[in-house]
Amino acid sequence: MIKNYLKTAFRNLWKNKTYSFLNIFGLAVGIACAGFIFLWVEDELNYNHNNCKLEQLYQVLENQAYDGKTYTFSSTPGLLAPTMKEEIPGIKNTCRFTWDRYTLFSLGDKALYERGFYADSSVFSMFTLPFVQGKKENAFNQLHSLVISEKMAKKFFPQDAVHSDEKNIIGKTLKVDNKEEYVISGVMKDLPENSSIQFDWLAPFKVYLDKNDWLLNWGNNGIQTFVELDKQANAQALNKKLDGYIKSKDTSAVAQPFLFCMNDWRLRNKFVEGKNAGGRIQYVRMFSIIAWIILLIGCINFMNLATARSEKRAREVGVRKVLGAGKRILIGQFIGEAIFMSFISVALSVLMMFLILPFFNTVVVKHLSVGLNNPIHIFSLIAVGLICGLVAGSYPALYLSSFNPIWVFKGLKIKGSAPVFIRKGLVILQFTISIVLIIGTIIIYQQIQHIKNRELGYNKNNLIQTGLRGDMQKNYAVIKHDLLQSGYVENIALSNLNQLYMGSSTNDFRWEGKDPAKKILITQDYITPEYLSTTGIKIKQGRDFHPIASTDSLGVIINETLANMIGKDPVGKILFRDTSATGSIPYIIVGVTKDFVFGDMYGKADPLVFMCYPEDNFGYMYIRIKPEVNIEKAVAKIETTIKNNNPGYPFNYVFVDDEFNKQFKSEMLIGKLSRVFALLAIIIS
Questions:
Q1: Does the residue 446 lie in any domain?
Q2: Are the C-beta atoms of residues 31 and 384 closer than 8 Å to each other?
Q3: Consecutive sets of 10 residues in the chain, 685 residues long: mean pLDDT of each?
Q4: pTM of the full predicted structure?
Q5: Is 317 a domain residue?
Q6: Which range of residues forms the domain containing residue 552?
Q7: Of 233, 265, 297, which residue constitutes the final position of a domain?
Q8: Residues 332, 236 share a domain
Q9: Sign of the alpha-carbon dihedral angle for 17, 19, 20, 24
């Protein structure tokens, strides 16, 4: 009987090629679209699963309340990690990380910037970092030790097979920042792309700590802290112990530390008023729903095509009923045919995915694979085939099996208006879903464009940002003179902070009339006098800094937000800064800038103070290229000038407008995917 059903199914497919093609292809496109989404979702959900201790690893975050608003920071005191391990039961291990940095490594004539961290040696026991050379137990026995990734090893030692014992690179050296020689003590496997922490080198944290003893103060936050809990430890109970822990060490501290599980680092890393408010998990849920909606559209399309040509199979149903076939047998036959066609669609969808996957990976910036060797993927494909077959074939099977053979053989029209209404309802549902997807896509696009095109308060175009390395700050005057004389550069300046992020804040400032009990978090940046004119930040009131920085060493420029807090006509007023190290220092407010966007691209500007210190340790150089010149020639001239005055350091730079657009990487990805899947939903319909 099954053999007969299969023959009938093949005969119907071959006899109705156009119908079969439309049905199979439409469902295949839907399954392929859903497959792409589920691959992306799977990759997101599997973030950090390379770590064996995933459930035991936590990052310490801090809630800090200022002026009635709670901020969440990942920066912590340098003393927190060792003290927690010693004093709090349930914490098995701790590890300190610096912020990731691109550091110059050189070997002979080869010099490259590589991304990495200074970290405690406990990093190797807490995190899963398999070694291919060396031993993790003694990786940091020497102060100037270096553990590098396979990828980095191949860049500097391409002639050596990293896995070969005969060509072991352990003991070889790399020069760091053109200064100290570091000994390679280990080579680890490259980290998977879906890991929240990415690096190509690790060096002992003590090297960093010896150069930054300010970290030994409980009031200074400057590094990341990670902890490993005992298996039986309860994170919520430990959070209660951490409540007020930093304040017990420093009574002036406002930070409230808490544990943040590694499982949530990728998908639930958004905090509002000190409480978790989701994050990327919202996108995962949204696209999971879209995947099932696209599958549903494909199934509805299948139903419509099947019921639309029902009368062509009416005689077959009539003959089978006369020959004794019951309703159950007919339902089984038609559902079986639907499942058969569904599995053909699954096979075709897999072929589509293999062909289109390189393009999809480019769009989502991942390296996903269909992974047919993964049992979960095979099971999922079988499940999708069965579900689609059952859903798509259920109504046509029930409808076709209900035909009355007498009416069929008399050639009379099949009675009942219900099928027509159901078909129309399904069509309306299809296009309603498609329209909703289109509207959602338009809304997402408009939101992104609104934020990208909002008034920023500075000019991001033709503005180059480069990190200060080597002797760039020492030779700043010469570099500035040469670039301004080149004819390509309009202006140049230095800043301690990245203009897009800022990031350095304090509550040490006060002014006349400020409530002493009120703590206000104020961002502070040290700049050279040309910074505001270089970046295009506008002065609203007062003046810019004097061209000779030392003249304005006790002058500050504030933004509108802070000016509104201080009161009317703030120019000329005194802004005090109280610290334990320097006491109370009075600064004169010489100017007020218009608010500009930094940090939160969607929010309002935080209060901000610019200071003009002539000898500060700056972090970034900003170069404004003239609008009428050739960009490529200008960049080449800038590179030559900086290299001449800072030999031994490759010139790395970014355009500020490109960095600004990267802030919306996730939103732009969501927008692209939404447009693609909305279009495909319409095509399937």
A1: no
A2: yes
A3: 58 65 83 91 95 96 90 94 95 95 92 96 96 94 95 88 65 93 96 95 96 90 95 94 92 91 94 91 89 84 66 56 59 75 90 93 89 91 86 67 54 52 72 78 76 82 93 93 95 92 85 87 92 95 91 91 92 88 86 90 86 81 95 95 93 91 76 73 66
A4: 0.85
A5: yes
A6: 463-652
A7: 265
A8: no
A9: positive
